Amino acid sequence: MASNVFDVLNTRACRGLALGALALMLGTGVAQASTLEVSNPRLSLLPGNTPGAGYFELENTGESTVTLVGAESPAFERVEMHVSSEHDGMAHMHAIESLEIAPGERIEFAPKGHHLMFMRRVEALSEGDEAEVVLEFSDEQRLPVTFAVVSPASL
Ligand SMILES: [Cu+2]
Question: Is the pTM above the cut of 0.85?
Answer without folding.
Answer: no
